[in-house]
Amino acid sequence: MTKQAGEPQWRTSSYTERQDCVALAALNIDSIGIRDSKNPKGPLLSVTRADLENLIDRIKAGHLDRS
User: Fold this and answer.
1) How far is the CA of 31 from the CAs of 17, 22, 65, in angstroms?
2) pTM to 2 decimals?
3) CA 36 – CA 26 distance, rounded (Å)
4) Minimal CB count within 10 Å: which of 17, 38, 39, 48?
5) What angle do CA 17, 28, 21 make, to 5 degrees?
6) What's the CA angle centered on 59, arms 63 and 27, to 5 degrees?
7) Residue range 22-62, pLDDT digits in tens
């Protein structure tokens, strides 16, 4: 089956050995879709690129680690 033109190109981490992670796709020029890679037909979360970059920066800095 081929993808339709304009269909998001979902990607997972290259570190993923199984499909049990999140998948990301550009939805438009400023929105990124996030979904569960195990449930590709399920719901997705749409965030701005800036919000996703901020989240990644906070994760890398340890701001969201459990105490």
Assistant:
1) 27, 16, 26
2) 0.76
3) 15
4) 17
5) 15
6) 135
7) 899 999 999 999 999 889 899 999 999 999 999 999 999 99
